[in-house]
Amino acid sequence: MDNFLEARHIVKRFAKHTALNDVSVEVPRGQIFGLLGPNGAGKTTLIRILNRITAPDQGEVFFDGRLQEPTDVQRIGYLPEERGLYKKMKVGEQAIYLAQLKGLSRSEAEMRLRNWFEKFDIMPWWNKKLEELSKGMAQKVQFIITVLHEPDLLIFDEPFSGFDPVNAEQLKQEILELKEKGHTIIFSTHNMSSVEEICDTIALINHSQVVLKGNMQEVKSQFRTGLYDLVTTSASLQPLDGVFSIIGNRSISGVHRYSLRKAETVDNNQLVETLARQVEIRSFAEQMPTMNDVFLNVVGQDATWADQQIENK
Amino acid sequence: MNKILIIIQREFLKRVKKKSFIVLTILMPFILAALVMVPLWLSTIENDEQSNIAVVDNTGHYFPVLKDTQTFHFVLMPKVLPDMKSDSSSFEAVVNITADLSKNPNAITIFSRKEVSGGLLSYVESQINEQVRKDKLAASGVPELDKIIDDIDRDISISTVKWDKEGQATSSNTEIAIGAGFIFTFLIYMFVMAYGGMVMQSVIEEKTNRIVELMVSSVKPFQLMMGKIIGIALVGFVQLIIWGILFTIILTVATAIFGPEVTQSAAATQPMMGAASQMPMSEVSGDTVEILSALKNLPYLELMLMFVLYFIGGYLLYASFFAAVGASVNEQEDSSQFVLPVTLIMVFGLYAAMYSVNNTDGPLAFWASIFPLTSPIVMMVRIPFGVPLWQEALSIVLLYASAIGMVWVGAKIYRVGILMYGKKPSLKEMIKWLRYK
């Protein structure tokens, strides 16, 4: 697959701990890549390296098929987790200034900014100072600033934090729209439900290392539980050794819901055939793990470690 | 456009557009001028109302020496009357002389319903003293003793002359040289402090605003730091130029209105305000022509060139230090532990400059004008007196070497510091940051 960005064997050490230990991730072109991990796992450090804010001790970053160069930062849009803008500066002027630093000309920046402000219907904010805006309004401005120079690569660090559900939904649509337009997006978060909704590929960082990565569906299938939900009108289902066992059974007004555990030696089709011989199937579904399950499964084993890291920090 | 230029532009425009900057820049010369000129002007206005002073002179010997002045009118009275004590009395005060003062120096008293005015006291004292002195000299029996004494008392007057390179005598004036040196010294001290502090303020603001992470994803931290330092320096230059122009205009106008005497002494005292009051006005207000010729003979080109060099070097050295401190701390309050020692060094420099004036080639003046942390302040007072070229060169080279070194160290600390939150920085920590990649 064509990778827009690759980090190869990145190592970053600080005085007291190693933030990244031989981390390699591949971000496919035109996809949304979820960078997951608990607090203190090293996500922000990796993002800073991709942004060339800090340099790795070892390893290298490949950008658009070649070694990353200093000027590549103009092709990156970065929304940091710690949001912040100049409080005393007027919104419009500020956005143009920051866009100029990303390589846009003044007139080009102004034109694009007008389009965005019209799109979000926030034209009256143009001459307001940032400190006059509410937190949510400032977040919107910051999002516009991130995407204004239409970078090939967008990096969003916890983009939904601080947004109310309505604005979060609007932001999600914008992100999906950006993907449609061909932008590659890195999306860092520990909010797993949003990952589920928008990510194509993920990498999970824990203990300063990548512990899991790949296509999200493939990752999920690695964590198949072998549990199934069956809905039927008959109460006569009997477990069959070597095929399945019944681990739960609830009946509500003549409808029976079974939780089944499948034996590892049979596949789904064989299971359905076996079940169909016994009862009439109203619905049948495999219990797919959510990303939250995957996350907890991988990280939860040593959640205390993350806490210690935070204390050490 | 180059990114560093964009940053310089913003840092510069943001500050010069501020109302407080515009007001301060335009009003300051007028306020300073007013502070000096108004009292001077007021003191030249004479009180046209004479107050009556009663003199009760039992000896009859002293009244004639108390001649009327513009403010006091002396009236001989036979004795102290009771109604002199009442408020309706036409006499401001009563001078009561009861006996021969050359025999009994305490036999004179001034009575008044209010506090006796200093002017009256000193006038009466000096006049009577003079008379008593004459009386005593006459009593000694030596003929023309008073003339001999006067001759002994005459002050000598030294005129200072500096030889130029061809050995020609040029007029020089030590006070003018001191004044010129102090103007520049004080300007450098003030601007480095104020504008260096502004750099720190601005860095802290960016860090606490959390905008800095966004900034360094677009520009290198070094560009951000240097853009800020240069932008703020330009603000300082603009302020300096405007002040220079305004002062020139004010002096020209004031000279036209008040005449050269007042303006000359005012101009000479202006730089001393707050810096030092070692130069009493009277010393300067000598012969106007002589002062003017001394002013002409100051090494202007050298002064200006060195001022600009020391200004830039000193500012760069301190501003990059302040930037590093600003980047390391989490809030303004934490900065004092780093800023205080440096401020003390600068204050030391200022005092060293003041004391160097008495001995511009002494060891204090020499070492303090070579040591880079104090040289921008101290060297400027020495230059009007003439400094060997090798000393100037050594001092400048050392200053710029350490300024560049400080910029390098500052940039390294800045780069790491701006992204460190929540930890109180220590010097040890900051040294560790130097090694980060």
TrEMBL record, chain A:
<dbReference type="GO" id="GO:0005524">
    <property type="term" value="F:ATP binding"/>
</dbReference>
<feature type="domain" description="ABC transporter">
    <location>
        <begin position="5"/>
        <end position="232"/>
    </location>
</feature>
<dbReference type="GO" id="GO:0016887">
    <property type="term" value="F:ATP hydrolysis activity"/>
</dbReference>
<dbReference type="Pfam" id="PF00005">
    <property type="entry name" value="ABC_tran"/>
</dbReference>
<dbReference type="Pfam" id="PF13732">
    <property type="entry name" value="DrrA1-3_C"/>
</dbReference>
<dbReference type="InterPro" id="IPR025302">
    <property type="entry name" value="DrrA1/2-like_C"/>
</dbReference>
<comment type="similarity">
    <text>Belongs to the ABC transporter superfamily.</text>
</comment>
<dbReference type="InterPro" id="IPR027417">
    <property type="entry name" value="P-loop_NTPase"/>
</dbReference>
<dbReference type="InterPro" id="IPR050763">
    <property type="entry name" value="ABC_transporter_ATP-binding"/>
</dbReference>
<keyword id="KW-0813">Transport</keyword>
<dbReference type="InterPro" id="IPR017871">
    <property type="entry name" value="ABC_transporter-like_CS"/>
</dbReference>
<protein>
    <submittedName>
        <fullName>ABC-2 type transport system ATP-binding protein</fullName>
    </submittedName>
</protein>
<keyword id="KW-0067">ATP-binding</keyword>
<dbReference type="InterPro" id="IPR003439">
    <property type="entry name" value="ABC_transporter-like_ATP-bd"/>
</dbReference>
<keyword id="KW-0536">Nodulation</keyword>
<keyword id="KW-0547">Nucleotide-binding</keyword>
<dbReference type="InterPro" id="IPR003593">
    <property type="entry name" value="AAA+_ATPase"/>
</dbReference>
UniProtKB/TrEMBL annotation, chain B:
<keyword id="KW-1133">Transmembrane helix</keyword>
<keyword id="KW-1003">Cell membrane</keyword>
<feature type="transmembrane region" description="Helical">
    <location>
        <begin position="176"/>
        <end position="200"/>
    </location>
</feature>
<feature type="transmembrane region" description="Helical">
    <location>
        <begin position="338"/>
        <end position="358"/>
    </location>
</feature>
<feature type="transmembrane region" description="Helical">
    <location>
        <begin position="364"/>
        <end position="381"/>
    </location>
</feature>
<feature type="transmembrane region" description="Helical">
    <location>
        <begin position="229"/>
        <end position="258"/>
    </location>
</feature>
<protein>
    <submittedName>
        <fullName>ABC-2 type transport system permease protein</fullName>
    </submittedName>
</protein>
<keyword id="KW-0812">Transmembrane</keyword>
<keyword id="KW-0472">Membrane</keyword>
<dbReference type="GO" id="GO:0140359">
    <property type="term" value="F:ABC-type transporter activity"/>
</dbReference>
<feature type="transmembrane region" description="Helical">
    <location>
        <begin position="21"/>
        <end position="42"/>
    </location>
</feature>
<dbReference type="GO" id="GO:0005886">
    <property type="term" value="C:plasma membrane"/>
</dbReference>
<feature type="transmembrane region" description="Helical">
    <location>
        <begin position="303"/>
        <end position="326"/>
    </location>
</feature>
<dbReference type="Pfam" id="PF12698">
    <property type="entry name" value="ABC2_membrane_3"/>
</dbReference>
<dbReference type="InterPro" id="IPR013525">
    <property type="entry name" value="ABC2_TM"/>
</dbReference>
<dbReference type="InterPro" id="IPR051449">
    <property type="entry name" value="ABC-2_transporter_component"/>
</dbReference>
<feature type="transmembrane region" description="Helical">
    <location>
        <begin position="393"/>
        <end position="411"/>
    </location>
</feature>
<feature type="domain" description="ABC-2 type transporter transmembrane">
    <location>
        <begin position="19"/>
        <end position="411"/>
    </location>
</feature>
